DNA sequence: TTCGGATGTTAGTCATCATTAACGAAATCG
DNA sequence: CGATTTCGTTAATGATGACTAACATCCGAA
């Protein structure tokens, strides 16, 4: 059979390298605050070399966000289908989001800031994935508290995301070992408070 | 006595109008994604007219962020000096932040995204005000839980801000009447969970 | 009424930047 | 060994955008 050619491997590596560097730069300075030259420079090549790997700056951002929202939704889907009970499922969802927020703070940042710069029709698809992800959470919360109106559950979910995605702001305050359970406990408590008495 | 001349009044209004429109645009598309023309257009004048009111785009952003961080710190200072007890003080701080987040979502958004685009030396001053604001929270939390390490309190504070500042994301999910107590309850519960057992 | 400042306007100017062109070297494959 | 693909490079090119200049207009005050 055909083995993975080294060209395929290096191409993939270079692409990933570029996506990674671009994510960091976009998170720090915003999509329009970063030039193609900047991104190329960050991976040791110069400017237009990027066009060997992506169709353009927009395509780069599109792929980045599509990848993030796919992975999040996929993880959430896996968690939900292998669920034992709603309570454990919620903990597992928290685990997914916390892992992502701690390990990929730049991607998380770009993910919730730069959707507006993605051109249609990718925009629509990313929106769809984001919505599905939120709905996984809302569904689990609704199982736990069927009497709570969906709008409230959705607002609570967004608030929980805001809490969890604060990691880029408190970078360095605490080691990940402590940050992880702290975020879990805070988010869990916040969600419980949100659905209490409804 | 000298009355406020109409020129002063209209100048102030126009300046405020510009800052308001610019905040909304910056929040939606990012600092570099908005042109001077865009901002002018949003208030019914065209492009270079802005230079009659601000020294440039950077100065506009600087003033916007300086104003926000001053107001937040000032409010927090007022709350803390007129405090009855740490518990009520924390509630009052929550009230301040929630009011701001609900009434000025665009400003809050710009405030925590665009500091990187403010030139020195204003950058330093805004940073200073932001830090002082955080420290007001940390001080109050430390009074409530002296055994909790400051780093953890700081991380918890940032997480609470993330939760409260999620309003732009859940815009329209709930009316402000419901959003307000929901955010208060969630943030309060999250903070309590953060300091428990420390 | 006349002067001056405040506030706009339109038409440059100069940088920056995304994108494309044209061209080279290294590696893969026949 | 060639030949083709892959991955880079350095120069255009064309748009966009911040900022400045030169020129109105309006309005309050002397």
UniProtKB/TrEMBL annotation, chains A, B:
Gene3D superfamilies referenced in this protein's UniProt entry, alphabetically: Homeodomain-like (1.10.10.60), Tetracycline Repressor, domain 2 (1.10.357.10)
Keywords, comma-separated and alphabetical: DNA-binding
Transmembrane segments: none
DNA-binding feature ranges: 35-54
InterPro entries: DNA-bd_HTH_TetR-type_CS (IPR023772), Homeodomain-like_sf (IPR009057), HTH-type_TetR-like_transc_reg (IPR050109), HTH_TetR (IPR001647), KstR2_TetR_C (IPR041490)
SUPFAM superfamilies: Homeodomain-like (SSF46689)
Domain HTH tetR-type: 12-72
Pfam hit, one: TetR_N
Protein name: TetR/AcrR family transcriptional regulator
Source lineage: Bacteria, Bacillati, Actinomycetota, Actinomycetes, Streptosporangiales
């Amino acid at each position: 059979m055909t083995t993975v050619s080294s060209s395929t491997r290096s191409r993939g590596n270079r692409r990933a390298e570029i996506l990674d560097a671009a994510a960091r730069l976009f998170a720090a300075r915003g999509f329009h605050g970063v030039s193609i030259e900047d991104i190329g420079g960050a991976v040791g090549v110069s400017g237009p070399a990027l066009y060997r790997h992506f169709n353009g700056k927009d395509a780069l951002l599109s792929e980045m966000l599509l990848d993030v929202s796919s992975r999040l939704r996929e993880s959430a889907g896996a968690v939900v289908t292998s669920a034992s009970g709603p309570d454990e499922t919620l903990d597992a969802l928290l685990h997914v989001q916390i892992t992502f927020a701690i390990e990929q703070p730049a991607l998380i940042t770009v993910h919730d800031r730069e959707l507006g710069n993605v051109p249609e029709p990718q925009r629509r698809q990313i929106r769809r994935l984001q919505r599905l992800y939120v709905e996984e959470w809302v569904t689990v919360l609704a199982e736990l508290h069927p009497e709570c109106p969906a709008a409230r559950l959705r607002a609570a979910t967004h608030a929980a995301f805001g809490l969890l995605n604060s990691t880029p702001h408190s970078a360095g305050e605490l080691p990940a070992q402590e940050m992880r359970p702290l975020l879990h406990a805070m988010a869990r408590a916040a969600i419980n408070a949100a659905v209490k008495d409804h």
